[in-house]
Write a structure and sequence with these properties.
Elements: E1 2-6, H1 21-32, E2 37-43, E3 53-55, E4 58-63, H2 79-85, H3 90-111, E5 115-119, H4 121-135, E6 139-143, H5 157-168, E7 171-174, H6 177-184, H7 189-195, E8 199-201, E9 224-228, H8 237-250, E10 255-259, H9 265-274, E11 281-285, H10 289-297, E12 301-304, H11 319-326, E13 330-334, E14 350-352, H12 357-368, H13 372-387, H14 391-413
Parallel strand pairs: 1-2, 1-5, 2-4, 5-6, 6-7, 7-8, 9-10, 9-12, 10-11, 12-13, 13-14
Antiparallel strand pairs: 3-4
Length: about 425
């Protein structure tokens, strides 16, 4: 089975300072299905060390879409946060969409895949839709967060494009129930009866840490709080910093580590300076591999304070939260992050409302002074929850999803 995968970013190694869930998904499906072959198509990004390459049965191509090359920098920190910071980059986005369509059609014609599979609707799903129309190749889409909902802002054209593409798609997966609802809002009740039959709730997966490796007793800190994610508005760090400031008054040994990169790095540093937290808060940049493993093992609390921004940008379900659960950390997350799909408040973590400094402060306080027996129960439940989302299990579900998608059109034509 040959699959052409369209994605905004593709991390082939740890030097790429971007989330790795797309590459981890493809690698796991490939591991489980040696007869599958994948062609990955992603835009070049000047901020990343992208280069075409082939390994095993996965071929990766990064296409160029704008000149000079230094202006190809839309995706490293997230497409919409980048455009929001500099609206002029919408010009580069238009070129990225146009060249993405061109290369999708070209590769589909040349390699004749059994399926075009798009991560994110905008712009990859649009490219898949057009290529499917031109080449009669089935296509499937995974929607991660607001990549469909953002087209609500385009009167008439946006909803028409969404419905046309999704109606023609062979299958659609969404990473959370909130993402599911964002697609549902485009349809009438009668229309939804038909489209919902091909929508599957399938989050990304997580690699479970080795049970034989324990936290480093010399470096573990019982008052260490950890955040991992892109430094963008929807991640909610603008509420975490003041909440942690209040916590630092009650817990003098409390420390906050922020791992990630993004357009809000300078404003976060300014907030840390404003609250006088330079000695208690560290920005560690993007982390992967052993560094991520070490940092996760040696913290007590993992926090995901995500919000829905004023312009509608939101999370689907953060993979980093699944990683926190897999390490048995006390996870604090907003309902709006999509965490309410997997966290039961007080059982395997704590749920709070978005944009609430007081609720975040209260949850952090509760986590830092939690009794040992309660802590152990949450740790156990968190790990058990994460097991349901291991890549081994999720990979099998995505295999079924892709196979169903590739054969659905053939079956309907027989």
């Amino acid at each position: 089975m040959k699959i052409l995968v369209l994605t905004s970013t593709y991390s082939s190694n740890s030097s790429y300072k971007i989330p790795t869930f797309v590459s981890e998904q493809i690698k796991e499906i490939s591991r489980q299905n040696p007869r599958f072959s994948f062609s990955i198509l992603a835009p070049h990004d000047a901020l990343l060390e992208t280069s075409n390459h082939t390994s095993d049965n996965i071929r990766v191509k990064f296409f160029r879409y704008f000149y000079p090359n230094s202006l190809q920098s839309l995706n490293a920190h997230g497409l919409w946060p980048t455009i929001k910071k500099n609206p002029l980059k919408i010009i580069a986005f238009i070129f990225q969409l146009a060249f993405g369509i061109y290369w999708t059609v070209r590769l589909t014609t040349r390699t004749k895949p059994d399926l075009i599979y798009a991560h994110w609707f905008t712009p990859q799903g649009i490219a898949a839709f057009i290529a499917s129309k031109l080449t009669n190749t089935p296509f499937a889409i995974t929607s991660h967060s607001s990549d469909v909902f953002v087209l609500k802002k385009l009167p008439l054209i946006g909803p028409l494009l969404v419905k046309s593409a999704l109606n023609q798609s062979s299958a659609i997966s969404v990473v959370s129930s909130r993402t599911y609802e964002k697609i549902k809002c485009f349809y009438s009740e009668k229309e939804w009866e038909n489209i919902q039959k091909k929508i599957f709730l399938l989050p990304m997966g997580v690699h479970l840490p080795s049970e034989t490796c324990k936290q480093d007793a010399g470096n573990y800190k019982p008052e260490r709080v950890l955040f991992i994610g892109r430094l963008t508005e929807k991640k909610g760090l603008q509420y975490l910093i003041p909440a942690f400031y209040e916590i630092s008054k009650r817990f003098p040994k409390a420390a906050l580590e922020i791992c990630g990169s993004g357009p809000l790095e300078n404003s976060i540093l300014e907030a840390i300076e404003h609250y006088g937290l330079n000695e208690k808060v560290r920005l560690l940049g993007h982390i992967e591999g052993q560094d991520k493993d070490r940092i996760l093992r040696n913290c007590k609390v993992f926090v995901t304070p995500s919000i829905i921004t004023d312009d509608g940008d939101a999370e689907g379900l953060p993979v980093a939260l699944l990683e926190g659960l897999s390490y048995g950390k006390i996870c604090i997350a907003t309902r709006e992050s999509g965490a309410d799909d997997i966290i039961k408040d007080g059982i395997n973590g704590f749920l709070i409302s978005q944009r609430s400094v007081s609720e975040l402060e209260s949850a952090l306080s509760k986590a830092l002074e939690i009794e040992a027996d309660v802590h152990q129960g949450i740790e156990k439940n968190a790990k058990n929850t994460a097991k349901e989302y291991s890549w081994e299990i999720i990979g099998k579900k995505y295999t079924d999803f892709l196979i169903k998608a590739s054969y659905s059109e053939k079956s309907s034509n027989n």
